[in-house]
Design a protein that fits this description.
Layout lengths: L9 H7 L13 H9 L12 E7 L22 E8 L4 H18 L3 E2 L8 H8 L5 E2 L3 E5 L7 H10 L7 H4 E3 L8 H4 L3 H8 L10 E6 L2 E7 L12 H19 L4 E4 L11 E9 L3
Parallel strand pairs: 6-7
Antiparallel strand pairs: 1-2, 2-4, 2-5, 3-5, 7-8, 8-10, 9-10
The structure holds flavin mononucleotide.
Flavin mononucleotide (FMN) binds next to α5 and α9.
């Protein structure tokens, strides 16, 4: 049985994805746009929140009603953006991250570049372009386009500042039974790959706030908030990071044939400062 969601193993696509901030001056073909639209996730699982996607053209040069989409100079050359709106509801930021990352990985699988933008985009202009209602939020957008191999100076600076090529070690992220014990890779058994793919996930300013505790057949997901970070932003982007991590973990597990589901199952164990429980993964039939 082929469990693949994309044209290649999801772990390969996760490793291939990187933030692209410099694009070729070449619009997406109509066929490519249609493919993206067809892949828009329709599910409201796991948090029962609706996410509405839209491709937006940055065709300021066109006559009629020009749309201007600003990124404070961070993104160069992109003509199309992927935007999405989430209904105002509990866990909508996590759901946003989870659903939007599925699109980011799909775009990666068809050779397009993306870059999560939660801070450096002009919210008002994008809100107008997607027709944001009072009952919705739009925490992030992403350019989608053909990557330019050359990087702009601002792109190199951003990668250097966020230390984008680094990830925290396995020991800092994954625990066994409680936060006092590190999870040995061998004890993760079939979950070694899903956890490793979670570890490679992108996160706002590369803060990597996700922590996971294995408790027998359950994996509990926690968010360790970076002090003062959420205050700087309109939305708590670290909750979006959490959704992205869930997406990587679930897609990798499913592709490996693991059948599981998300549930609210806080084990009530002692947690470090600034940390909160989000959700648990439970393997079915166990
Ligand atoms: C929720 C979220 C918000 C982000 N916001 C921005 C942003 O506003 N501007 C930007 O240039 N990069 C942004 N990034 C990209 C991160 O800096 C990047 O993912 C991280 O440094 C890791 O690098 P990589 O994506 O190349 O692996 C964001 C990433 C995430 C997940």
């Amino acid at each position: 049985m082929n469990n693949q969601l994309y044209g290649a193993p999801v772990s390969e696509i996760i490793k291939r994805r990187t933030s692209v901030r410099t694009y070729l001056d070449q619009p997406l073909t109509a066929e490519m746009k249609a493919k993206l639209v067809e892949f828009f996730p329709k599910t409201t699982e796991p948090f029962n929140v609706t996410i509405r996607f839209k491709l937006i053209e940055n065709d300021a040069a066109q006559s009629g009603s020009p749309v201007k989409l600003g990124t404070y100079g961070v993104i160069k050359g992109a003509k199309t953006f992927l935007a999405a709106a989430a209904e105002k509801k509990e866990k909508n930021l996590e759901q946003f991250g989870y659903a939007f990352e599925k699109m980011v990985l799909y775009a990666t699988s068809v050779g397009l570049g993306t870059c999560w933008l939660g801070g450096t985009f002009k919210k008002g202009e994008f809100a107008k372009a997607i027709g944001l209602t009072a009952d919705e939020i739009m925490p992030c957008v992403s350019p989608v386009g053909y990557p330019d191999r050359r990087k702009s100076i601002i792109e190199s600076v951003m990668r250097y500042t966020a230390r984008s090529d680094n990830r925290k070690s396995w020991d800092e992220l994954f625990f066994d039974q409680d936060f006092g014990n590190h999870l040995e890779k061998t004890d993760a058994v079939i979950y070694q790959e899903p956890l490793e793919m979670l570890r490679l996930a992108p996160s706002a300013s590369n803060k990597q706030p996700w922590r996971v505790i294995k408790e027998n057949n359950k994996y509990h997901f926690y968010l360790e908030h970076t002090k003062g970070y959420a205050k700087l932003l309109a939305y708590d982007l670290q909750k979006v990071d959490m959704g992205i991590a869930m997406c990587h973990f679930e897609l990798t597990a499913k592709e490996a044939g693991i059948d599981g589901k998300w549930l609210d199952s806080d084990p009530g164990i002692k947690i470090p400062e600034n940390t909160e429980y989000t959700v648990s993964w439970m393997e079915k039939g166990k």
